[in-house]
Design a protein that fits this description.
heterotetramer; A: Glutaconate Coenzyme A-transferase; B: 217 residues; alpha/beta; Glutaconate Coenzyme A-transferase; three-stranded antiparallel beta sheet; 6 helices; CoA-transferase activity (chains B, D); CoA_trans_fam_I (chains B, D); 3-oxoacid_CoA-transf_A (chains B, D); Acetyl-CoA--acetoacetyl-CoA transferase subunit alpha (chains B, D); transferase (chains B, D)
Chain lengths: 218, 217, 218, 217
């Protein structure tokens, strides 16, 4: 199983029946593929729809129905469309159950940096700051390291997305829960040792006596 | 009182240096014809308030490529490297705003509010130089309202009075921008007789629309 | 012509083609009867509709379409319906061209009191404070005196509706324009002298050399 | 995931002393059945946030007459002398709020905003005891957000998921209240199969609605 699949499958387990969920572009969108059977989730796209689902077949795309990247999408029965104000009212007003975002860095305070690299990448924050500040639950889905360098640090040195502590970090190596006391190592991936996770992490990890292995569907 | 105006005349009202709100989200629900006509008329030194600048040479990206934009207030420019290059070169002054804050600031401009009190951006670079206020023991940024000289809006359907309906994700920033500009120019996919849009499906009321242009020629 | 008719007819002359207009309950609603020919005005009801008009005939009332007093109404073609938030966005955001309200008192600063009499009448301000603070043009339509006592005073002693200076006061005796310098007597009613208006007014009136007579349709 | 709930069970979730937002404007667009059931179940010490209290013994006026209300936040009580009497007698604590400010305060509660910056009420009795803030040289009142334990909403049409559509002036405070309460109970004129309300006509999205009750028995 490749890194992204591990992460997407594990994140999918966090979704509950009836949840309103926003998935960031890139890796987080893979989560849709691995929803547990019997779980109905409403996916929001911040450009103005709840009930988004992939196009059922080629050739049925419409100009007026796209995801936040501008790519044609489709909707489930019972979907609702709305403007940007309402969309962010849902995101910022505590109506969004879960947001899954990519990350550049997470630190011991559980704070996330994911929107810019000064002097290099200045894409703009889009909805990221609103999502992290406003969602009930923030899950960061990212690779544990970038070109070998740890992304889970003592202190983020890139500009923060929000001062809010995120709720869960899922990587291909581990599941980590930021808490008031620090980063707790909840699970390690199949075939990965606690020592390997610690070695790949700059931040101090709180390691319980027993750390279970991530359970993923085949 | 039909609001229908020839596109050349409607766009000619916009002077160089004007501040424009432009609806759309990655080119979806953008006023394509109005943008094309702005470029054709060679307008320059514009301040643009919009969610994004689409992709290079597409929709608002056409204005960027034409060098028509002096200042930009947007939430995302990541998919248009030309905007990023002009920003880094200093050709465009760019203010990046969280998307929800952008929507609320425009709304505040249209609703007569003094500003927006939001938790988004507190403690980040977005907060630099801004007032904060404590309400019930929690700190919020005070984000100022946004208004424009003109709003360029795209609608699915209009009637001749200027009542507008929108479709799915082509809605996005269009309805809120229609309330926050001194002059509103709307482009519609079709223009129908007055009375054909049910009152419950009117999302922008006619009284705020000044000029109406059909999407097809 | 009775007092109310004089006031309503004169106020109607202030409306311009295409105006968005809100009429307060009571006397102001009479204005609809005297619109000049060829003038199309959009009447807003703050409970959520633009394009209100009286019921064309009995028996066509619907529960879901009423004016702000809860009385069934009807709408013109091209009407639009919306929620209370949007309704007051229009009122407070500078989109309402004219509001016509009743008044208890107006003073030399052009400030209006029209929403409560402490200890006696506590109806609540409804939309009055929003209308006076937010409309482009505020017209007060009221009788000049109440039981012989002046209502146009040096200083309001009832709680103010807004600190904003209103734009015009129309009574059965006169048309008065509040300005930075004070209350200017613009017109007197047919058969009424300047002296009679001054006598019925506690506030100081600025009286130009010539004060024309109100011109009303028969 | 049908949200349809028996009315007795839905209303039984509301404890004495709860804070309720109730939609409607002079009884138009009020959740008639839910109000009747609250009275039938003898709920008391309620805090009600609503535009008005209708007329004596009608709609919210039934709760007033039943002595169920301890505190009221409203913009207008002029057409219900019973409310005024209970206010003057000290039986109900009444906070009168300008109607536009009331709508915005509820919206702020639902949108996660820290408050509302408004010119309405500046310099009047409404401003007493409140923070003010200057933005761009102009003074605004800081009005605090409103939220409730429950919102009781009336809709024209619902689907089984809880998507809601409204009709004309029966809309009023219902959509905004549906966003500002921990639990939302909606009463609908008809409940239709999922997919029958076009997405562009969904004004309250299903995810914010907890319980759904049909208007007729």
């Amino acid at each position: 199983m490749d890194e992204k699949t591990i992460i997407a499958k594990r994140v999918a387990q966090e979704l509950r029946n009836g949840n309103l969920v926003n998935l960031g572009i890139g890796l987080p969108t893979l989560v849709t593929k691995y929803l547990p059977v019997g779980i109905q989730v409403f996916f929001q796209s911040e450009n103005g729809v709840i009930g988004m689902q992939p196009l059922p077949e080629p050739g049925v795309a419409a100009d007026a129905l796209t995801d936040a990247g501008g790519t044609p999408t489709s909707i489930i029965p019972g979907a609702g469309a709305f403007d940007s104000v309402t969309s962010f009212c849902l995101i910022r007003g505590g109506h969004l159950d879960v947001t899954v975002l990519g990350g550049l860095q997470v630190d011991e305070a559980g704070q996330l940096a994911n929107w810019m690299v000064p002097g290099k990448m200045v894409p703009g924050m889009g909805g990221a700051m609103d999502l992290v500040s406003g969602a009930k639950r923030v899950i960061v889905a990212m690779t544990h390291t970038a070109k070998g360098a740890p992304k889970i640090l003592k202190k983020c040195n890139l500009p923060l997305t929000s001062v809010r502590r995120v709720d869960l970090v899922v990587t291909e190596l581990a599941v980590i829960q930021p808490t008031e006391e620090g980063l707790v190592l909840l699970e390690v991936a199949d075939g990965v040792t606690v020592e390997q996770v610690v070695a790949a992490t700059e931040a101090r990890l709180i390691v319980p006596n027993t750390v279970p292995t991530m359970q993923l569907a085949a | 009182m039909s609001k229908v105006t020839a596109i050349e005349a409607a766009v000619a009202k916009i002077p160089d240096g004007a501040t424009l709100m432009i609806g759309g989200f990655m080119g979806v629900g953008s006023p394509h014809r109005l943008i094309d006509e702005l470029v054709r008329q060679g307008r320059k030194d514009l301040t643009i308030i919009a969610n994004d600048t689409a992709r290079p040479g597409v929709d608002i990206g056409k204005l960027i490529r034409a060098g028509a934009v002096k200042r930009l207030v947007a939430s995302h420019i990541g998919l248009n490297p030309e905007t990023q290059k002009q920003m880094i070169d200093g050709a465009i002054d760019v203010e990046l705003v969280p998307q929800g804050t952008l929507a609320e600031r425009i709304r505040a401009g249209g609703a007569g509010l003094g500003g927006v009190l939001t938790a988004t951006g507190v403690g980040t670079t977005v907060a630099e130089g801004k007032q904060t206020i404590d309400v019930k023991g929690k700190t919020f940024l005070v984000e100022e309202p946004l208004r424009a000289d003109f709003a360029l809006i795209s609608a699915w359907r209009a009637d001749y009075y200027g009542n507008l309906s929108y479709e799915l994700t082509a809605r996005n920033f269009n309805p809120v921008m229609a309330l926050a500009a001194d002059t509103v120019i709307a482009e519609a996919g079709e223009i129908v007789p007055v009375g054909l849009i049910p009152p419950d499906q009117v999302e922008t009321v006619s009284v705020v629309v000044d000029h109406l242009v059909a999407r097809s020629n």
